[in-house]
Design a protein that fits this description.
Aspartate Aminotransferase, domain 1; binds pyridoxal-5'-phosphate
């Protein structure tokens, strides 16, 4: 199958599987799994934070991040379309009694600081206490500009807010800007990043921050059921991905740019292409038939009025050529 629904659909390669098979393991709840410890040390170093924590999923990493920042009755400011507001089943509110204050993002994926300023609650017992600003980088494939990250950092320092980044795809941002990870992460207190998206592991996300913060997060990880045992097998996939799958994210970006240009050439309404994501507006009467047509040809798409196509390490240029050829035939048959 050629699967463009998400970059989460990748399968571990033979080389990644053999790294997993060879992993030295211990019991990570006792803190003695050497491979998990190596992964946490490596990600802490790459992100220039004091410590990092390995968790099963991005959703759990974001939940633990919020629980470790905010107490019951406190608030985080977050984008309307942010994953840790809209797509995580309201976990922070349900499990942490933490109130989200959503705000609309600008077209470039940034949350306007003047708008955020209006949403920060004064210290008055009528209001929840605003504790945290949460940004997403990349957001719908968009790379937040470095200048914005720096401004947001100073803004939060002046207003005594913490700054968290949901960096599920932050390596895509770093590669797109040709900078090391720490050029982005210096402008946040904490971040989450996913190993299981563009980096191609089957499982795993990291939460990074100060040593004291990560110590607190360990308790929340345990409470939410995310502390694992011989998880070195999974951490080995993460170490392999960090060594082998970061620089190649540029191929995904180049493939997405190529796909966008080809879809424009066959007359499709391409709304945007950023990093590894292409958004295409489909005529309403084509969404279901296109999905069916492609499925019959072994191509998986999540079609909607605005359809998102995501490139990743399991789709090469040849697969995309097949997709474009099938799309052209579909249009010819309409
Ligand atoms: C921006 C963002 N954050 C967090 C997540 C959650 O990751 P997971 O699917 O591992 O829970 C996703 C998943 O797609 C995401 O896109």
């Amino acid at each position: 199958m050629i699967d463009l629904r998400s970059d989460t659909v990748t399968r571990p390669s033979a080389a990644m599987l053999s790294a997993m098979m060879a992993a030295e393991t211990g019991d990570d709840v006792y803190g003695d799994d050497p491979t998990v410890n190596a992964l946490e040390a490596k990600v802490a170093r790459l992100s220039a934070k004091e410590a990092a924590l390995f968790l099963p999923t991005g959703t759990q990493a974001n939940l633990v991040a919020l629980l470790s920042h905010c107490q019951r009755g406190e608030e985080y400011i977050v984008g309307q379309q942010a994953h840790n507001y809209k797509y995580e089943a309201g976990g922070a509110a349900v499990l942490g009694s933490i109130q989200p204050q959503p705000v609309d993002a600008d077209a470039d994926g940034t949350l306007p600081l003047d708008v955020i300023a209006q949403f920060i609650k004064p210290d008055d017992f009528h209001f929840a206490m605003t504790r945290l600003l949460s940004l997403e980088n990349t957001h719908q494939g968009k790379v937040l500009p470095l200048s914005y990250l720096e401004q947001a950092w100073h803004f939060t320092r002046e207003r005594q807010l913490a700054l968290h980044i949901d960096g599920a795809r932050i390596f895509n941002a770093a590669v797109a800007l040709s900078v090391n990870l720490d050029a982005l992460t210096r402008y946040c207190d904490t971040l989450t990043l996913c190993l299981s998206k563009g980096l191609g592991t089957p499982v795993g996300s990291m939460l990074c921050g100060s040593a004291e913060y990560i110590q607190r997060a360990r308790r929340w990880r345990k409470m939410t059921g995310g502390a694992m045992r011989q998880s070195g097998i999974l951490a080995a996939a993460g170490l392999y991905a960090l060594d082998n799958h970061v620089a190649r994210l540029q191929d995904d970006h180049d493939n997405a740019a190529w796909l966008a240009s080809q879809l424009k050439m066959i007359g499709m309404d391409v709304i945007s292409q950023n990093t590894n994501m292409v958004f295409v507006r489909l005529p309403e009467d084509q969404t279901a038939p296109l999905k069916k047509w492609m499925h019959e040809k072994g191509i998986l798409l999540n079609t909607a009025r605005v359809t998102r196509l995501v490139t990743h390490l399991d789709v090469d240029r040849q697969a995309l050529e097949t997709l474009v050829a099938e799309w052209r035939s579909f249009l010819a048959n309409q």
